[in-house]
Amino acid sequence: MTENSRTGQRLLVVGAHSADFVWRSAGAIAKFVDAGGEATVVALTYGERGESGELWKQEGQTEENVKKIRHGEAERAAGHLGASFVAFDLGDYPLVNDHSDIERLAELMRDYAPTVVMTHPDQDPFNPDHPVAYEMVQKARLMTSGAGVESGFKTAPPSEFLIFEPHQPELCGFTPTVFVDITSAFERKKLAMAEMKAQQYLQSYYAERAEHRGNHARKVTGNKDIRQAEAFMRVVPNVIDTV
């Protein structure tokens, strides 16, 4: 993504769990909206079973109440970034790759026609749901991607396809090919992260990661004004007019 105007463009971020978009792409979402674009976040699950440890410490806690709390957290976090939030509530640990759910995601893509799609990498040795989310997004995107070929179903123009940074990139086949300067949006990312009280332990980790990637982005560009950044990996090549 560039610093050019995003007016009329749409970003779709799909996470396996309701907080995934916050840790890995909150700054990029805010910057996209700042540039005039529209952003929608989809959570395939609330992470109610495997990613809500703090909530389950409360006596008498129920799964439905955890979902309700997580929905509110994600909705408020998305609001800080100027994005809308959609929950599929498919159930986590494990998230199951079901054809009807892929078709549901594909239908959303056809209607929304995103110009940029973000999701998890296709491997993660510590999280069973993240690779499933990738497979669902990849299939839905291919089912909707009209590249000038007539089809017997509604299509949308091909989108840019990016992977956001996983918790342990070196174990997930993740190599950054894009850094987004989120310096101007970092305070909003922190506000969004602060909403995720079910996973408070991740807030300092991802604040530090943004600083690390900011350092890397400064080295790549020589721009000393970059303080924080987020890293992404392209799945398909980008096309430019000239080098």
If you had to describe this structure to a student in words, what would you say it looks like?
The chain is of the alpha/beta class and 243 residues long. It contains seven helices and seven strands. It has helices spanning 20-34, 53-56, 63-81, 99-112, 129-144, 186-195, 201-221, and strands at 10-15, 38-43, 84-87, 116-119, 160-164, 178-181, 229-234. Strands 3-2-1-4-5-7-6 form a seven-stranded mixed sheet. Strand 4 (116-119), helix 5 and strand 5 (160-164) form a beta-alpha-beta unit. The chain is globular, with a radius of gyration of 17 Å. The model has no long low-confidence stretch (mean pLDDT 95).
Question: Notable features of this structure?
Answer:
single chain, 243 residues, alpha/beta, seven-stranded mixed β-sheet, 7 helices, globular
Topology:
Layout: E1 10-15, H1 20-34, E2 38-43, H2 53-56, H3 63-81, E3 84-87, H4 99-112, E4 116-119, H5 129-144, E5 160-164, E6 178-181, H6 186-195, H7 201-221, E7 229-234
Parallel strand pairs: 1-2, 1-4, 2-3, 4-5
Antiparallel strand pairs: 5-7, 6-7
Helix pairs in contact: 1-3, 1-6, 3-6, 4-5, 6-7
